[in-house]
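Methods — Computational structure assignment.
A single polypeptide chain was analysed. Its primary sequence is given first, followed by the predicted tertiary structure written as structure tokens.
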Amino acid sequence: MIEASDDYIAHLTAVGEGDGALADIGLTALILASLDRPGVSFQKYEHHLKILNLDLQGQNMQSDSAMDRAQALVGVLNGNHDYTGNEEYYEDLQNANLMSVIDTRKGLPVALCILYIHAARGQGWHIEGLGLFKQLTGLYT
């Protein structure tokens, strides 16, 4: 069992008792990923989430267009950081673990969407996960 800090336990408790809205979907996914990787430091992964936010901020997105924002997200996550679905080993459970996804830059659509949502919310954009990946994959081509 992971020796979680009181802050992480408090975070997960608040998420569980909350209304379903996640203030920080990236951190929540990292805490859950850590259950499968006890003793692994969060520093590298938290830093990477900050880099994604900074890279997207660096796009200087002035448009309120959902399409323009989606293209900026794809440009950063797929273009700059090479995130993609893991088609070769799709059934591997590590494709759902955000730490592993960050390490390999490959994962299940739901895990990749967590990164997209995290980056978008870091810009103050309203974004929902429902159907997001299907819409974004059309922008890769």
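Note: Residues 43-137 form one domain.
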